[in-house]
Amino acid sequence: MDADSTDRGTPLYDSAALRALETQAGARLGDGFALMARAGQAAWRELLARWPEVQRIVVVCGPGNNGGDGYELCRYAHQSGRDARVLRIDAHRPRTELAQRACDAYRKAGGRIKAFSDGFGKAELIVDALFGIGLSREPDADAAKVIDAINASGLPVFSLDVPSGLDADRGSAPGRVVRATHTLQFLAPHAGLYTGTAPRCAGTLLVAALEVEDDLAGAPVAALRLDATHLRGWIAPRARDAHKGDSGHVLCIGGDLGKGGAVMLAADAALRCGAGLVGVATQPAHVTAVLARRPEVMAQGIEAGERLGTLVERADVVALGPGLGQDAWGSALYEQALAASKPLVLDADALNLLAQRTRMLPAGTILTPHPGEAARLLGFTVAEVQANRFAAARLLAEMFGCVVVLKGAGTLVAAPEQTPRVIAAGNPGMAVGGMGDLLTGCIAALRAQGFEAFEAACCGALLHAVAGDAAAAQAGERGLLPSDLLDGMRLWANGGPRT
């Protein structure tokens, strides 16, 4: 762990900050249209870089400044000799002064504007310039038809700034949304494009700063994005005279009858991520299997009504919940673990028990809910959680005064008085039972090795996701198992591949 590790990450911005940046840059340039011209030119250059052979291009323009960017791009495409044209519906005639100027410039250059009803013809590429960062509502019926047609075309789709229909702050889509092949963000990265629905519909992402980087100074940061590059050097090498006591003692509690595999996976992850000692408190029936799988684990069977006693006292960190169940056995262990006031990582049924009876948690507790568990804790629906993942994670952190790892596409890490982190790693192959148990063990191991709670959650979530990507790269996403990640977790806990 290094002194600056809590500052790691790429800044992400919300729409309010980007609008202010746009206004500031436009004023400095003396004309807001100059920034739109830069956006159109940057988009044209990116199109050429991504699809250099494309000759027939359709640009679907909306009524606002995002449509203006599209007119500018199409003007460059037309002037280059491409078969390029704008498609729009009557309701999407330019409504802003800048969009009207861009439309006029396009027409004066000889550009063609066709009705959307004419269709895409023999187009090879669609440019989506319908709506930009300002849309936070469901597209109307006419716009929805356009979006459906774009998605049904089978053509590559290049979205300008934001896939139309996506909320650029929340990462959700209140209605229809364009499924882009590639999205070019303008000015700076948008917070909502890295979580929730966004990873499914934004395609690959790139940022065109439009030469206004200096104007970003002082702009409020909505979140910090973490990817594999930020993991390097985060976990410091062990001292040459280190002993097992220096790396902490993790106790994993869980594994009711029929669920022993969950607590075994958590223990495996804790060991592979560097905990010096790992214990397991589980049903007596599972002890033989735990020791056969991993003899390095100190496994002890706990009968119904039996107390954890010195097991919890000796631990530095308790990982509570994998396979715990919600019956009398699991509930009793849950109450004992919370009463011990040890640093906690809560997952799975520990979260479900917490949802049944909200209570104060020890300082530094880390919760690791998936959207369903988060919904139960908040009293929301899953759809409400997913509609604004940033708000849900922040509300949970404030409600319990703890660190929250809201799992899912673009996992979020939130805590009171901390800038949220977005984990820009992981893949759909990780959507399988047991992956969360690995994450619990990983975070607990880092916590035991001296990481503060928020940093352990950030680093652990990133390490887990990067290991998942490495495992998927070897044999594909489908059929990926939690145990496939263990070697990668060990590798990244030691600094990652040697280059």
Could you describe the 3D structure shown?
- The chain has two domains: 211 residues, Rossmann fold; 264 residues, Ribokinase (UDP-N-acetylmuramoyl-L-alanine:D-glutamate ligase, 3-Layer(aba) Sandwich).
- The protein is an alpha/beta fold.
- α17 packs across α18.
- It is built from 18 helices and 18 strands.
- The N terminus is likely disordered.
- The strands form two sheets. Strands 1-9-18-17-16-15-14-13-10-11-12 form an eleven-stranded mixed sheet, with helices on both faces. A seven-stranded parallel sheet has the order 4-3-2-5-6-7-8, covered by helices on one side.
- 39% of the residues lie in helices and 15% in strands.
- α12 links the parallel β14 and β15.
- It holds the Pfam family YjeF_N.
- Its cofactor is Mg(2+); K(+).
- Keywords: ATP-binding, Isomerase, Lyase, Metal-binding, Multifunctional enzyme, NAD, NADP, Nucleotide-binding, Potassium.
- GO terms for molecular function: ADP-dependent NAD(P)H-hydrate dehydratase activity; ATP binding; metal ion binding; NAD(P)HX epimerase activity.
- It catalyses: (6S)-NADPHX + ADP = AMP + phosphate + NADPH + H(+); (6S)-NADHX + ADP = AMP + phosphate + NADH + H(+); (6R)-NADHX = (6S)-NADHX; (6R)-NADPHX = (6S)-NADPHX.
Give a concise summary:
The protein is an alpha/beta fold and 499 residues long.
What order do the helices and strands come in, and which of them pair?
Blueprint: E1 10-12, H1 15-29, H2 32-50, E2 56-61, H3 65-79, E3 83-88, H4 97-108, E4 113-115, E5 125-129, H5 141-152, E6 157-160, E7 182-186, H6 198-201, E8 204-208, E9 223-226, H7 228-231, E10 249-253, H8 260-272, E11 277-282, H9 287-293, E12 298-301, H10 310-314, E13 317-320, H11 328-339, E14 344-346, H12 349-356, E15 366-367, H13 371-378, H14 382-387, H15 389-400, E16 403-406, E17 412-414, E18 421-423, H16 435-448, H17 453-475, H18 486-493
Helix pairs in contact: 1-2, 2-3, 3-4, 8-16, 12-13, 13-15, 16-17, 17-18
